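[Meeting: bench + compute handoff]

Bench side (C.D.) handed over the final construct sequence. Compute side (W.E.) agreed to return the predicted structure before the next meeting so the bench team could plan truncations. Sequence as handed over:
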Amino acid sequence: MARGNIVDINRRNGLFVVRDESDQLVVFELLDSVDLEIDDEVIGDLYVLGGHELRHVRSGETMAVYGQSGVCTLAHARAVLGG
């Protein structure tokens, strides 16, 4: 299981960016009602595309997410995240 921290959130579309321990970025869509904050830690398979679950460490909850990007550059993560 990989660990990462949330580094950006678009609350309008439910997308968020996670930076893993190797400094790689991944974009997810939140399909759940967990309250996310910048710097929150998540644990799980950060590299899967499509629907799966991540563990939100602060709340202790498992949250449903959709992997949007796989590992990507900062420019690509920002483009997927939208404005």
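W.E. noted at the follow-up: The mean pLDDT is 96. C.D. will use this when planning the next construct.
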